[in-house]
Specification:
23% strand; Alpha-Beta Plaits; 2 domains; alpha+beta; 10 helices; Aminopeptidase; 33% helix; six-stranded mixed sheet
Length: 364
């Protein structure tokens, strides 16, 4: 299926689905995909702000495959047009080729070649953390025995990954001369530094926690901005941080713990800016039960099982909604979001073979 896969990938890469700006509508890439799904019942929906979804079914499917068609923006470091697919040796190079239009191309090739019951959900809003398409689908509460979410996993089934949270904290102080005795307490910047130290200490305290091969809490202080100059007390400071909890860690509890670390709580505003659950979702017992259920599905679909991963995917949204979900797709996450992004052609062919078996045999 190599020629068919590369033909589809060439067309998919040619569509500009960068997110942002997410200038995407029901035409373009979605019209192309719909035109390739002969024999399917196809529904395309516009959810606003460039968020579009295509839901397609053939027969009476028990398995749903989800692929996002949006990409990250291209960087100036690209050595050629990112929307023109290049095949160089064993690599297919193009924006989104790895993350994750390659999976969409392999899936289109598979459904065209192999008859069988299958459902597809294609979306355009994953890269901006604005899962309107998935949310709209989940609201319909359609019944499926398993959901495969395509992300670069080297064609291995991933059963667990971390959640994700992002936070904005604004600290306020009292402007003044830095020589004053009150400088230590009045500085908003000092508050941010104290809070940062407390966050890093929390990471150290949680390093022994484990789930499914993942260890500890991941946290990154991404930005601290405030102050004016060395001899002036900083009246305001903004701090942004993100964290990635293990499956079974309660995000609400973590936020409560983080808020309690604020050195002068009445001088700070703490705002959660994004939340993504872990895969699988639930408390320790529930998460482990769901992980084992996903393992059984991978075995039934004859998918090789890989290690848990640190990056986040929308599979967790399906898990949170009660579906047995796993992550599976061609390519390596290290190649995603890079200049001259590429995917190994062998990975595309392998993914198409696995998708073909899923379509033909389902869960047995």
């Amino acid at each position: 299926m190599r020629d068919a896969i590369l033909s589809h990938l060439e067309r998919l890469v040619s569509f500009d689905t960068r997110n942002p700006p997410r200038l995407i509508d029901e035409g373009g890439i979605f019209a192309y995909c719909a035109s390739q799904l002969a024999g399917f019942e196809v529904r395309i929906r516009d959810h606003g702000a460039g968020s579009v979804s295509l839901f397609a079914t053939r027969g009476t499917p028990k398995i749903l495959v989800n692929v996002h068609l949006d990409t990250v923006p291209s960087s100036p470091a690209w050595t050629a047009d990112p929307h023109v697919l290049r095949v160089v040796g064993d690599r297919a190079i193009g924006l989104g080729a790895c993350d994750i239009k390659g999976a969409a191309a392999a899936l289109l090739a598979a459904v065209q070649r192999v008859p069988g019951d299958i459902a597809l959900l294609l979306t355009s809003d994953e890269e901006a953390n604005d899962a309107r398409g998935v949310a709209a689908f989940l609201a319909e509460k359609q019944a499926f025995d398993a959901v495969l979410v395509a992300e670069p996993t080297n064609c291995e089934a991933v059963l667990a990954h971390r959640g994700i949270g992002s936070v904005l904290v604004n600290f306020s102080g009292h402007a003044g001369h830095a020589s004053g005795a009150n400088a230590m307490l009045d500085s908003a910047l000092h508050q941010a530094v104290h809070f940062s130290n407390a966050l890093l200490d929390r990471v150290e305290a949680d390093k022994a926690l484990r789930f499914g091969g993942l260890t500890g809490l991941r946290l990154n202080i991404g930005r601290i901005e405030g102050g004016i100059k060395a001899n002036m007390i900083a009246p305001t400071t903004e701090l942004r941080f993100g964290f990635r909890p293990l499956p079974s860690q309660d995000i609400d509890r973590l936020h409560a713990d983080f808020r309690a670390m604020l050195p002068v709580a009445e001088r700070a505003t703490y705002q959660e800016t994004f939340r993504g659950p872990s895969l699988p979702s639930g408390d320790v017992a529930t998460a482990e039960e769901r992980r084992l259920a996903a393992r059984d599905i991978a075995d039934a679909l004859v998918l090789p099982i890989g290690n848990a991963v640190d990056f986040w995917t929308e599979a967790s949204l399906f898990s949170q909604a009660g579906y047995d979900a796993l992550v599976f797709g061609p390519g390596d996450i290290a190649q995603a979001h890079t200049a001259d992004e590429w995917v190994a052609i062998e990975q595309l062919e392998r993914a198409a073979q696995h998708y073909s078996k899923v379509i033909q045999h389902g869960l047995g």
